[in-house]
Amino acid sequence: MFANFALVLAAYLYLSLAHPLKASLKWKLVILGAILLAAGRLAILRRLFGGAGGVECPWLLLIVTSLFQGTAVILFLLCVPKDLLRVLSFAAGLFGKREAGARFRGFLVSRAFAAGLAAASTVLSGYALWQAARVPDVREQTLYLNSWPERLDGLRIAVVSDLHLSRFFDRDWSEAVVTRVNALKPALVLIPGDLVDGETTVRVPETSPLASLRSEYGTFMCVGNHEYISVVWDWLPAFRSLGIRNLYNQHETVEINGEPLVIAGVTDPVSERWHLPGPDLQKALTGVPRDGPPVILLDHRPGHAPSNSLDGRVRLQLSGHTHGGLIPVLAGFVARANGGYLKGWYEVGSLMMYVHPGSGLWSGLPMRLFNPSEITLLTVKSVPPPAPSG
Length: 390
Prior knowledge:
Layout lengths: L1 H17 L6 H15 L1 H9 L9 H30 L9 H11 L2 H23 L3 E9 L9 E5 L11 H13 L4 E4 L12 H4 L11 E3 L3 H5 L2 H10 L2 E3 L3 E7 L2 E7 L15 H4 L10 E4 L6 H5 L4 E6 L10 H8 L6 E5 L2 E5 L18 E9 L8
Parallel strand pairs: 1-12, 2-3, 3-4, 4-5, 7-8, 8-9, 9-11
Antiparallel strand pairs: 2-12, 6-7, 10-11
Helix pairs in contact: 1-2, 1-4, 2-4, 4-6
């Protein structure tokens, strides 16, 4: 998928920007080479350094190549309206403005305009990269649920998702995230998947700070698709050694103020590539009575919410995976690929779902434009009874 996207991106940018320029073939080939390097970043880094998206690439090279890749993506998004204007300019002849239309088209394919687009794309790419790499701020959310147990009223949950710990998000970054989470003094820490990128043998520096996560009742997670790419059967015991309880089509019941609360988690459908168990909510909730304690479900994929809601026992689903859509325009395609869910709150049948925009980001496409990462402090409260009338 990514290889096809890179080829389309490179071909379009060349035809839109380089080919129409009044420049020598040598310069056009130089521009084409730069476009191919930027668009093909993932394949090149994977070939040179290994890992999904070249996650074992040295940090500085990751940053520099990410900047160029982001420039190419944003340039593509800016070239589409530019080319639409170029086509529409032909209509100027219908109004006796053929010469003006020709001048406008000439401006759109000029060196000055191409340089301006490239400069604007580089600036936006740098900002998007900074937004992706920064330590996320805390965002507070309050959820009101009907019939929420009184003893659980005001339950504070810290949610971090899609950390994608790797050389891009190094030890200093993960330590800063842990410090911010601990400062919230949550009752629970919940992680709906994609915690790591890379194998256990190389991710020790980045993941070891997670052992310092502190909450009153523990840290729980479900696996995301990147845990499988990163050799999931090695990570499951590694997570346990960090004090993180992975819910692999399982649930645990915690007692808070004498009130039971079920935390459940399911696997990711990418597991089928490795002939491992796929997501199974019924198995995860085995032994949980229909009229039993409330259930909070960790499911990496928000698109599963409609089917999860049919069970009737899940009150709250926490998901990630979408990264908030990354950047405008692309966000629409991300939402479409995830059942229409992108980020924030959704009421789906009998459950409420929060789609986390991510605390980190996959280093294969590290861009966040007007889409900040976050550490979420979620407070769950019972809907207050209506005030008596009259």
